[in-house]
Design a protein that fits this description.
The complex is a heterodimer of chains A (498) and B (232). Chain A is built from twelve helices and 13 strands. Chain A is α+β, with helices and mostly antiparallel strands. By secondary structure, chain B is α/β, with parallel strands linked by helices. Chain B folds into two domains: 122 residues, Response regulator (Rossmann fold), CATH 3.40.50; 96 residues, Orthogonal Bundle (Arc Repressor Mutant, subunit A). Chains A and B meet through helix 8, strand 5, helix 9 and helix 10 of A and helix 8 of B.
C-alpha cells in the first residue's frame, strides 16, 4: 500500500494562522485604543496605522490571513474609532469614504505583500532545491559501484531532508547482490527503529521496482518543494544505478565476445596443429605394422624416430595449451623459489634436444650467476618456446646462442639469439600477441601461442620481454627480477663455510 | 635374483597398463596390474611385489594416499608415474616414501633404468651389506673414512659439503627432493632454504664434475631435487 501512495502528507493546521491574524488585529486595536481621545481624531492617520497589522500578517502567514486582518481592521476601525463609538454606524459621509478607501487599500496592499513574500519564499526554496539536486548529481556522476551510489544517495538525502535516519535499500536482482545503507544523524533526536518511516520513496525504473528510500524525521510534513526534490532524488538514484548496470552488462558482453573469439581461433589453430603430428605418427605406425613392405633396419629406425619426435611435439603443444588457458583464466601464478638459470636452461635443452639437432646451440649461462626467484617450470617453458621458435625460423646449420648476465643488482637479462630473418619493425611487438604470425600459417608449424605464453609468464614474474633485429639475425630478450618480495638473496654469499 | 622380479602396476589408464604389461613381460618381469587404488593395495598385500609402479591420479583415491598406506607396512620400492603439471604432488609423494618418479609421457629405456636402480637399492637395503665405498666416474667416496678422491687425488671438502655428498651418494640412483636433502643435511627447520642447497650443490660440482656446467654426477631433477649418478 505504501508503494502506491509514496508521500504521506499530514495537512497543516491552517486555522491556527487565521486565529493568530485575528489576535494581531486585537493587539493593535488595544494599542491604538490607549491613544484614543474623546474629541475624536483624524481617521485617516489611524487607517494608515491599521495597514501595519495587515502587512505583517500577509508577510508572516500569507494571503488568506492578510485578507482576514484587512477585514477585521476595517471593522475595528469602524467600531472603535469612527464616531459614534461602539457601533458600526457611520454618520459622516467623509468617515464612510475613509473606511471604504481603507478597506480597498488594505486588501490590495495585503495581497501584494503576501504575493511578493510568497514568491520570495518559493524562489528561495527553488534555489535550495537546485543546490541540493546539483550536489547529488555531482556526487553520483562517475560512480561505477552500486554500493557507492547507494551510500551517496543516503548521505545526500540525510543532509537535504534534515532527517534523523535514512535507509536506502536496493533489492537483489539476478547476480546483483542486495545493497542496503542506513545513515543516522546523531545530532538530531533519535528516531525509534520500530517506528514506520515518515516518508517513503520508491526507486522505480522503467523495467521495474529497484528498491526504496525511507526517511525518518521529526517534521512530519513535506513541502511541495521537498516532495518534488525527493522524487527527483529517487529518479537520479535510479538513473545512476541503471547506468552502472548497463555498463557492467556491456563489459560482460564484451568479455564473453573476446573469450569466444579466443576459443574459436584456438580451436582452428589447434585442430590443424594436433592433426599434423598425429598424421605422421599414424602413417609411420601403420606402415610398420602392415606386412606389405619389408622395411630394412634403417627405414624402420627412421619411421620410429619420426613417431618419437612427433610425440614430443604433441606433448609440448599440450603443455603450451595448458599454460595458455591458465594465462587466459588469470590463473598463472608463479611458484617461486631460488633457482639457478643454468639448471633451468640445461633441462630445457634436454627437452628440446631433438628439435635443435639441426642447429648449433651455444649456451653461455654460467652456474655462477646469481640465483633467480622464479617458477622453475614456467621459465623452462619460456626457454623451450624461444628455442623452439628459433629453430623454426632460422635456417638449418645456423647457431642459436643463449646468454644471461645481470644488468644490475636487481635485474637479470637473458638473450636468445638466432640467425633467422628480420621481422618488420612494426611487427616486433605484435609477435607476442596470441595467434599472431609474421609468415603464412601453413609454412611454419605451431599454434602461434609460444611467444604469447612467454610474455604471459615473464610478465607474471615481473619481468619484461621484447624482440630485436640484429645485424645478422634476430634476438629475444627478457628480464627477470633478482629480488623476491623486495629482498635480494644475500644468504648465498655469507653461508658458504670457509 | 634367481626368480623373475614381480612388478605391480597401479594405473587407471587401460592403454598404459596394456603397454607396460607387454613391455615388462617381454623384459622377463612378472607383471600384475590394478586400475584402482583399493585393488592395488589388496593385490600388494596378497602377493607382495618386488616393485610398484604407481600413477598419482586414480579414480577412487589419491596416489599419494596409496603411497602412504603402502609405507605403513612395506618398504617395497615405489616408482611414481605422473603428468608434468603435478610437480607439487610428486614432491609430496616422494616425501611420503616413494622412491622415484617418471613424467608421462616417458621413454621405456628410462623406466627400465629406474626399475633396475630401485631393485638394486632394495636388494642392498635388505642385504644390510651397505657399500662404504662409492664410485662415480673418476670420483671415489669412502663414507667410513670420510675421504673423497678424484682420479686418485684427494678432494678437500668442507664439513657441510661432505655431509651433503654422503647423503646424496648413500642414496645413489634415487631422486632426492630438495626438502628431504635440506632436512637431512641441515635442520628440518631449514627445509625451505633452497638457496643453501643451490649454493652447496654448485660448490660440490665445481670440485667433482669434469664440466660443472654440464653435470654428470650430481644431476638435476627439474623442480624436484637432485640425483646422484653412480656407475652401473
Amino acid at each position: 500500500m505504501m508503494r502506491l501512495n509514496p508521500f504521506r502528507r499530514f495537512k497543516p493546521f491552517r486555522g491556527l494562522k487565521y486565529l493568530l491574524a485575528i489576535l494581531v488585529t486585537a493587539i493593535f486595536t488595544l494599542i491604538f485604543l490607549s491613544f484614543r481621545t474623546e474629541g475624536g481624531q483624524d481617521h485617516t492617520i489611524l487607517s494608515l496605522l491599521y495597514l501595519l497589522p495587515v502587512v505583517l500578517s500577509s508577510v508572516l502567514w500569507g494571503l488568506g490571513p492578510g485578507a482576514l486582518v484587512a477585514l477585521a481592521s476595517f471593522l475595528a476601525l469602524n467600531y472603535f474609532f469612527v464616531p459614534p463609538y461602539y457601533t458600526l454606524l457611520v454618520h459622516r459621509t467623509q468617515d464612510l469614504l475613509v473606511l471604504i478607501v481603507f478597506l480597498g487599500v488594505s486588501i490590495t496592499v495585503g495581497q501584494l505583500v503576501g504575493r511578493v513574500s510568497k514568491s520570495l519564499a518559493e524562489s528561495h526554496a527553488r534555489e535550495h532545491e537546485a543546490i541540493h539536486l546539483y550536489e547529488l548529481i555531482m556526487h553520483l556522476a562517475g560512480l561505477q559501484d552500486e554500493q557507492e551510489i547507494v551510500s551517496t544517495l543516503a548521505e545526500q538525502t540525510l543532509i537535504t531532508f534534515h532527517a534523523g535516519r535514512v535507509d536506502v535499500l536496493v533489492e537483489a536482482q539476478g547476480s546483483i547482490p542486495v545493497h542496503h545503507v542506513r545513515l543516522e544523524d546523531h545530532s538530531l533526536p533519535a528516531q525509534a527503529l520500530e517506528d514506520p518511516p515518515t516518508f517513503l520513496a520508491p526507486l522505480q525504473s522503467a523495467r521495474g521496482f529497484l528498491g526504496e528510500i525511507k526517511i525518518w524525521r521529526e517534521a512530519s510534513t513535506l513541502s511541495p518543494a521537498e516532495e518534488r526534490l525527493l522524487h527527483t532524488f529517487a529518479s537520479q538514484g535510479v538513473l545512476a544505478l541503471e547506468r552502472v548496470r548497463l555498463s557492467q552488462a556491456a563489459s560482460r558482453a564484451r568479455l564473453l565476445e573476446e573469450s569466444d573469439r579466443f576459443k574459436s581461433s584456438l580451436l582452428s589453430s589447434v585442430s590443424h596443429e594436433l592433426r599434423t603430428p598425429l598424421a605422421t605418427i599414424k602413417a609411420a605406425v601403420t606402415s610398420l605394422r602392415s606386412g606389405a613392405v619389408e622395411w630394412d633396419t634403417e627405414a624402420r629406425a627412421d619411421l620410429l624416430a619420426a613417431v618419437e619426435e612427433e610425440t614430443d611435439h604433441l606433448n609440448q603443444l599440450v603443455g603450451n595449451l595448458l599454460n595458455m588457458s591458465r594465462i587466459e583464466a588469470g590463473a598463472l601464478k608463479p611458484e617461486r623459489s631460488w633457482n639457478s638459470l643454468a639448471e633451468i636452461l640445461s633441462s630445457a635443452l634436454d627437452l628440446t634436444r631433438q628439435q635443435t639437432e639441426k642447429h648449433v646451440v651455444e649456451a653461455e649461462v654460467s652456474a655462477d650467476l646469481p640465483l633467480v626467484p622464479v617458477d622453475y617450470f614456467q621459465i623452462e617453458q619460456v626457454f623451450i618456446n624461444l628455442i623452439s621458435n628459433s629453430t623454426k625460423y632460422s635456417p638449418e646449420g645456423t647457431t642459436i646462442a643463449i646468454h644471461a648476465h645481470p644488468v644490475n643488482r636487481n635485474l637479470m637479462q637473458v638473450t636468445v639469439r638466432n640467425q633467422g630473418p628480420h621481422v618488420a619493425t612494426e611487427h616486433l611487438e605484435r609477435i607476442f600477441d596470441k595467434f599472431y604470425r609474421v609468415t603464412a600459417a601453413d609454412r611454419v608449424t605451431g599454434a602461434g601461442l609460444g611467444l604469447s605464453i612467454c610474455k604471459g609468464i615473464i610478465e607474471a614474474h615481473g619481468g619484461h620481454i621484447w624482440a630485436e633485429n640484429l645485424d645478422r639475425g634476430f634476438a629475444f630478450h627478457f628480464t627477470l627480477p633478482l629480488s623476491w618480495e623486495g629482498f635480494p638473496l644475500e644468504a648465498g654469499q655469507e653461508m658458504v663455510d670457509e | 635374483m634367481s626368480t623373475q622380479p614381480h612388478i605391480l602396476v597401479i594405473d587407471d589408464e587401460a592403454q598404459i597398463l596394456r603397454a607396460l604389461r607387454t613391455i615388462l613381460t617381454a623384459k622377463q618381469f612378472k607383471v600384475s596390474v590394478a586400475s584402482r587404488g583399493e585393488e592395488g593395495l589388496a593385490l600388494a598385500a596378497a602377493q607382495p611385489p618386488d616393485l610398484i609402479i604407481l600413477d598419482l591420479s586414480l579414480p577412487d583415491m589419491d596416489g599419494i594416499e596409496v603411497c602412504a598406506r603402502l609405507r605403513e607396512w612395506t618398504q617395497v620400492p615405489i616408482i611414481i608415474l605422473s603428468v608434468r603439471e603435478s610437480e607439487r604432488e610428486k614432491v609430496i609423494a616422494l616425501d611420503k616414501g616413494a622412491d622415484d618418479y617418471l613424467t608421462k609421457p616417458f621413454g621405456i629405456e628410462e623406466l627400465l633404468a629406474r626399475i633396475r636402480v630401485a631393485l638394486r637399492h632394495s636388494a642392498q637395503t635388505l642385504g644390510s651389506q651397505k657399500s662404504q665405498i662409492i664410485t662415480a666416474g673418476a670420483i671415489v667416496i669412502d663414507l667410513a673414512l670420510h675421504i673423497v678422491t678424484r682420479n686418485g687425488e684427494e678432494v678437500k671438502l668442507t664439513a657441510t659439503e661432505f655431509k651433503l655428498l654422503a647423503y646424496l651418494s648413500a642414496n645413489a640412483g634415487r631422486v632426492l627432493t630438495n626438502q628431504s636433502i635440506l632436512s637431512h643435511v641441515w635442520e628440518p627447520a631449514e627445509a625451505d632454504r633452497v638457496e643453501y642447497l643451490r649454493v652447496y650443490i654448485r660448490q660440490l660440482r665445481k670440485k667433482l664434475e669434469e664440466d660443472p656446467d654440464h653435470p654428470c654426477i650430481i644431476r638435476n631433477e627439474p623442480g624436484i631435487g637432485y640425483r646422484f649418478m653412480v656407475d652401473e
